[in-house]
Amino acid sequence: MAALESPQPAATATAMRHAFGNVLSVLILVLIGVLAFSIRLFSVIKYESVIHEFDPYFNYRVTQFLSKNGIYEFWNWFDDRTWYPLGRVIGGTVYPGLTLTAGTIWWFLNSLNIPLSVETVCVFTAPVFSAFASWATYLLTQEVKGSGAGLAAAVLLAMVPSYISRSVAGSYDNEAVAIFALIFTFYLYIKTLNTGSLFYATLNALAYFYMVCSWGGYTFIINLIPMHVLLCIVTGRYSPRLYIAYAPLVVLGTLLAALVPVVGFNAVLTSEHFASFLVFIIIHVVALVYYIKGILTPKMFKVAVTLVVSIGMVVCFIVVAILVALVASSPTGGWSGRSLSLLDPTYASKYIPIIASVSEHQPPTWPSYFMDINVLAFLVPAGIIACFSPLSDSSSFVVLYIVMSVYFSGVMVRLMLVLAPAACIMSGIALSQAFDVFTGSIKYQLGRSSNSTDDAEDTNNAPKDDASAGKTDKGEEIVKERSSKKGKKKEREPADKPSVKSKAKKKALVLPLETSIVALLLLIMLGAFYVIHCVWAAAEAYSAPSIVLTSQSRDGLHVFDDFRESYAWLSHNTDVDDKVASWWDYGYQTTAMANRTVIVDNNTWNNTHIATVGTAMSSPEKAAWEIFNSLDVKYVLVVFGGLIGYPSDDINKFLWMVRIGGGVFPHIKEADYLRDGQYRINSEATPTMLNCLMYKLSYYRFVETDGKGYDRVRRTEIGKKHFKLTHFEEVFTSHHWMVRIYKLKPARNRIRGRAKKLKSKTTSAGWSSKSEKKNPWV
Amino acid sequence: MKQSSVVVVDLLLLLLTIAVIATPAFSDLVLSKVERRIDVTSQFARVTKSLKVVNPGSESISEFMLTFPKFLGNNLAYLSVKTKRPLANLSVKKADPKGIPDSISVYSVALPKTLSKGDSLTLEVVATFTNVLQPFPEKITQGEIHLVMLQESAQYLSPYTVESQSLSIKLPNARIESYSKLENTKLQGSELKYGPYKNLPPFSYSPIVVHFESKAAFAVAEKLVREIEVSHWGNVQVTEHYNVVHRGAQLKGEFSRLDFQARPNPRGASAFRHLLARLPPRAHSIYYRDDIGNISTSEMQSDSKKTELLIEPRFPLFGGWKTFFTIGYGLPLSDFLFASEGKRFVNISFGSPMIDLVTEKLIVQVVLPEGSKDISVTTPFAVKQSREIKYSHLDIAGRPVVVLEKDNVVPDHNQHIQVYYKFSNINLLSEPLMLISGFFVLFITCIIYTRADFSISKSSPTYLAKLQWDEVLATLQEVQSIIQKCLAAHDKLEASLRDLSRTGDFQTCKAARKSTDSLLKDLSKELKPLLGFLQSSPSASHISPKVEELVVKEKELQEKLMAKHTTVVEGYEKKSSGRDIENRIASQQQKIIALRQEIEDLLEFIDEI
């Protein structure tokens, strides 16, 4: 009976075990997706479903345009509501990936008659894509080190704070989809490398195309992959699979990348892409060498090598010469400013203040590493070691990836985002290897301890036990896979010692029981600490939408909604074609929320224009009025935090305005605004500072609030307390004074002519004091 | 400005006098007593009149003419005429009789019964006028108070002789800048009284102007879209989009937040900060937002009778300032949906729930569930009707929408409208069923996709490799099952040995060995072709050595077992002592167990492939 029946369940048991494992990992993956999505909803729950910060507002506006006007209008969109009077060709200067993705989702849902607003879709795009990203991480890590590591990496990525900071609900920025695209491209590369399948190579090129559409960070891919290929070649790991993984990617990827308007011919002209072409040539040379080596006898080969090498050298020389010529003649001088500042971290602060002025382009501090990747920082080295045993093509790739991304994150705090997936993959590998070793040793040790008790019993019984256990096991296996497997080991291993010895040989690393248990507990604690930190970071640190501020006071939550208050005021109470000048930070928000034309915005593509606004803000009132008037500006918006203590206001950013303005208009000198190298706004401040427009617009009638003019951000009394505005008038100030909007007074009639300029100057003060009562132009 | 408005008044007066001269007495009716009361405490003028109509003539009369000066008539938002005994609403329509000058608007009222000689009837008229409180001056600064001006006639303008009349104007409790002083004018507190005047001929008119401070919010919704979505799952969702403007005196000059927030005397009396919405009781999931997100400044109080929502726009509204916002709330279906005569009807209020809000253009969209039929609407006043289709939440046919439009809506219009329709409850299930079938199809396709072979080329190397691999796997499984069978046979052998030690019957034991032996031989025959296949197959190159090893080990185990068996049986045959036998087989036993373990390990390894 048993002889006939027992094999049958055994076969099904194997199948069942596979099926069960698959179902379990699918279930875990689904849960990871849910985790990745829901941990990013703190912002919606704590605040509201709203677009965050600055850039997402622009993306939101573009998506609105796309959903309203369709794709063709979008490509041709010339936006005249920004960079007035220059305008901006949006269709040709944005990375369209994010917008197209959200637009497609919106279109799809609406065609199913699920009436979600564009805003809702935009808000939730990032969380959805972080779920995708964690699945992509699973795939990538699984290709490298198996599904255990994959699951661990996926769960780590689902909640890594660095990524959360860029992908909470509402943070509708390029990075939201780009990180997914990045990981997925890497996965497909590794997959192609492992399988050598042209199908995956094509997919890889498509994924790369999506990445190019999504983010400027695609240059990271197109430099990292060639580096890995080069590494493989140098370490003698060349194989046809490598060729298939790389060559189609370069050819198809470059062709596809050139289709994206914002990249266009840059895909072959700028230096960021040259590494890939160089390696493309090298891999062909190597392929040729291997081919010739295959068809020739070793003797002939030696002869051929000398021939090929000499020809190859000549070809290489020519190509390098062409490349150098191209680099020298390419329009950007070879490298874009941001790329250069990556290669030379001091470049931006030396030459491009506008890049240096952005806080996310600064190098990170050590605490920010702990904040953003937390315990992963400690697990990464272990992961690297695990990758070296044994070193495969794919594991060498992730090692290269982590090394490069650590460097880049060290240059720009923003690129911490690229480091995060690498750190997660490494830590996932480390964790899963550690768990393997520890649980394996525990299993083994437990088995041995029960063995010693068994030994005391009649040895004759042992085989009998074994046989019967084997039978019952097979029955159990079907019901409960895991426990029976454990049981099987427990009962079988005690059977005799030689097999144990062979097992011990097989498992290279067997630790004592206590050590493994303690280590396991410590690892679990580490994981728990990570989870707690991530949830805290998601809930407290990274969920604030930054357009709404809250403060917890004794009488409950206080909401500062001043930005939207003033944008709403602008949008409803000014003419639709009025131009609003503000520092560029608020450009995107003004166009998106207030629907008013702005002079400069966060795109910062025209340094001179920004410098003009900076100059106006740093000039005295009259000069500023002239600059603004020449730009057709009607309203000037300043952000002022002195009343409630909001630190990132325009006065704190003012030195950058001076620097950027001074970079183009030399009559603005930073030194004029500093007293002994110190930036002050109190009584020690320089007269230039106290008379500049920014100071005046910020502190206009501020002294009347408390009688002293105490600035809560700078923690000092302001220098110049009582003054009048002659060329501007206050039209709106928000509830907590955070946004103040001034209107340019119209030019005065030139009845008296220029000859009496002096006189008119003296009267202007008196005139403005009476302006409340009779202002003939308003 | 003052100049111009005075000119207007003068002109009007002139026209009227001409009219009075030119128009003959309209009919024989006499108004024996007219009491008028004008309430201007809010932004509109609400006029209530009580008219006692007497027919002294011989003809019986069934029509009554209600007249207003044109500048009032143009701003008439609401007009209702009632009789007290019997209590009835009378139908009113705009009339254009000959002989009445252009400067007078005429409405004709159908009397409930014809008035014959000597009969009398009291009419209660309620009329609401918007835009009749003119801000004056038209532009003020932030610190100034908001003054408005009302023009009316001290005497009731009527085509009939009025025997006795009086007018009282209820002013807000604030400053009164000036008012026209005629005979019998009295100001008592905030109430201004004109009259009584006796025996005035038809079309008597004496203009008055009252100039006073108004603290009311001049909130006007330039456009209000109310969407009422009826869901038979138990909810009525109301969404209201407001475009609100302050229609009072325009703000001129600066707006200073400092002055506005100054204590103790803030400047900005002309602005309004709040709007109060009185929502139906049991309103839930209330939200208040605009294009750019939630507006956090609102308060809600609710009790069993009503829900009060105090909303604060993002910024205080000064004269001429505009804003936009949306409020939305859910209502329990049972409070608003009723059934009558096989039809259902929604009974819901027409106007905005905001207190004292004038709506210049109101669009009410009642969205009925998908599949509603035979739709009809009853309204207490005339509105423009149209139909639309709205697609929402997985609709296929779309939901019928009843669109009602009306201009110049005041709170008096907040009456219930009824939308009748037929709806079968089965339609409720259509969308869930659709979802279920959708997912079903999705899963079915997934199953089919994973089970079926979709490769186009049956000769491509990858496909062949896959086929080969499948074959290898199948062979491996067969090998495994055979080895398992062998192991089972070994178990049987061992069992027979145990029987032997119990019973001592070595004949059966020998028989068992024979049968097992033949079985094992058969099995090893079966194994041979499989092994041959594995060795020849290129894709199994890395497995075949393991399999071979397995088979060899198994063979070894077989031999050892047989040897052991023979030894034991022989031992029994020779009647050796148990201990002796055990000693003899001890070394074999050790090897058997080791082999068995190795085989298990190998099996496990193959299993994992």
Explain this structure.
- Chain B: InterPro entries: Ribophorin_I.
- Chain B: This is Dolichyl-diphosphooligosaccharide--protein glycosyltransferase subunit 1.
- Chain B: Belongs to the OST1 family.
- The complex is a heterodimer of chains A (778) and B (609).
- With 778 residues, chain A is mainly alpha-helical.
- In chain A, α23 runs antiparallel to α27.
- Chain A is globular, with a radius of gyration of 33 Å.
- The N and C termini of chain A lie far apart (106 Å).
- Chain B is α+β, with helices and mostly antiparallel strands and 609 residues long.
- Chain B is built from eight helices and 32 strands.
- In chain B, the strands form seven sheets. Chain B has an eight-stranded mixed sheet, with no helix packed on it. Chain B has an eight-stranded mixed sheet with strand order 22-21-25-18-17-28-31-30, with no helix packed on it.
- In chain B, a hairpin with a 4-residue loop joins β4 and β5.
- The longest helix of chain B is centred in the last third of the chain and has 43 residues.
- Chain B is rod-shaped.
- The N terminus of chain B is likely disordered.
In summary, what is this structure?
Chain A has 778 residues and is mainly alpha-helical. Helix content of chain A is 66%, strand content 6%.
Summarize the topology.
The complex is a heterodimer of chains A (778) and B (609).
Chain A: H1 2-5, H2 7-38, H3 42-46, H4 55-75, E1 78-79, E2 88-89, H5 90-93, H6 97-111, H7 118-145, H8 147-158, H9 161-167, H10 174-195, H11 198-214, H12 218-234, H13 240-257, H14 266-269, H15 274-295, H16 298-329, H17 337-343, H18 347-351, H19 353-356, H20 366-373, H21 376-387, H22 393-411, H23 416-456, H24 461-479, H25 481-492, H26 497-506, H27 513-541, E3 549-553, E4 556-560, H28 562-573, E5 579-581, H29 587-594, E6 597-598, H30 607-618, H31 621-630, E7 635-639, H32 650-664, E8 674-675, E9 678-679, H33 687-691, H34 693-699, H35 703-706, E10 710-711, E11 716-717, E12 728-733, E13 739-744, H36 757-770
Parallel strand pairs in A: 5-6, 5-7
Antiparallel strand pairs in A: 1-2, 3-4, 7-13, 8-9, 10-11, 12-13
Helix pairs in contact in A: 2-7, 2-8, 2-24, 4-6, 4-29, 6-7, 7-8, 7-9, 7-10, 7-23, 8-23, 9-23, 10-11, 10-13, 11-13, 12-15, 12-22, 13-15, 15-16, 21-23, 22-23, 23-25, 23-27, 24-25, 28-29, 30-31, 30-32
Chain B: H1 2-22, E1 30-39, E2 45-54, E3 61-69, H2 70-73, E4 76-83, E5 88-90, E6 92-95, E7 104-115, E8 120-129, E9 133-135, E10 139-140, E11 147-153, E12 161-170, E13 176-179, E14 185-188, E15 191-200, E16 207-213, E17 219-231, E18 235-246, E19 250-251, H3 257-261, E20 275-279, E21 284-290, E22 293-294, E23 298-302, E24 307-311, E25 322-332, E26 337-340, E27 343-349, E28 358-367, E29 373-378, E30 384-390, E31 399-409, E32 416-422, H4 430-451, H5 461-503, H6 506-536, H7 544-573, H8 578-608
Helix pairs in contact in B: 5-6, 5-7, 5-8, 6-7, 7-8
InterPro entries (chain A): Oligo_trans_STT3, STT3-PglB_core, STT3_N
Domain STT3/PglB/AglB core (chain A): 577-636
Catalytic activity (chain A): a di-trans,poly-cis-dolichyl diphosphooligosaccharide + L-asparaginyl-[protein] = N(4)-(oligosaccharide-(1->4)-N-acetyl-beta-D-glucosaminyl-(1->4)-N-acetyl-beta-D-glucosaminyl)-L-asparaginyl-[protein] + a di-trans,poly-cis-dolichyl diphosphate + H(+)
